[in-house]
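Worked example 2:
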Amino acid sequence: MPTDSPPSWYDYTALPDRKPLRFPGGARLALILTINIEYWEKSRPGQKEPLFTGGPMTIPHALPGDVWDSTNWTWREYGQRVGIWRMIDMFDRLGVAPSCTVNGMTLAERGRIVSAVNERGWEIVPHNWAQNDVLSNYANRPDEERAVIERTLDQYRLTTGREPRAWLSSALRSSVWTPLFLKEQGIIAHCDYLNDDQPYLIHTLKGPIVCVPYSNDINDFNMFARGGMSPAAGLETLKACFDALYAESATSGRLMNFGLHPHVIGHAYRIGALREFIEYAQGHEGVWFARRDEIASWYLDHHAEHIPPATPSI
């Protein structure tokens, strides 16, 4: 798949040089609450590297990927059996619709969860086929990467009855080809990058796609599972981030994404921190509990002045 130009690129734009960003209805801060409903393979034949990156802080002895790591696998499965239902109940009570990412294997193997999310009309974002099989594995084999994306999107359409509009790669691992392959499939929002507090345009050889940035820092896995924060400390961190972005958004809109995992935040002793943070955000005027596809569609329609020139730069 040779080409003289990069398949995708974006331009550097300094925050002070941009025109003010105005969200719909006078909103100033777009808050995305992302539930990552992930599914890992139990093992992968012939793989000697561990299948799982990270895990419970107290579990030693990494196992090779061709051996079922029952401890790591079932630690994560707690989220599918218990945690997600606790989260669904809480979001229902608060009247807030999160954005849910799902692997192709989640769609195929955990239909009970997908149906519950789908019937509520929540945004459902495809998230690779298997959580452990990241797109960067195919960085030098773009045809194989495209096949993984197509397989995932085919399962998405079959299970949800919807057309996919946004994409988040598992582990945020993608390649320079990923935005192009997503554009080919009608996706308008690519969400892997970590470099901004506003949406911006990614150019591809087939036309533009909107980057709706993610956050690796405001993320329950890094805050609680790896970072060891208490629920109280996590809530304090979330409020501090929200307050700073909310103050900045008085002159130009900002995004805040909080990445959630049912096997982390869905535990009984942590769910209260999430509830209190959402209630805190609900107490402020001009907060948009946004979907990624809504942000991307609105950005394409209303903020052409933010779009940099289509000149390959990376």
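Residues 36-217+289-306 form a domain with the TIM Barrel fold (CATH 3.20.20.370). The radius of gyration is 19 Å.
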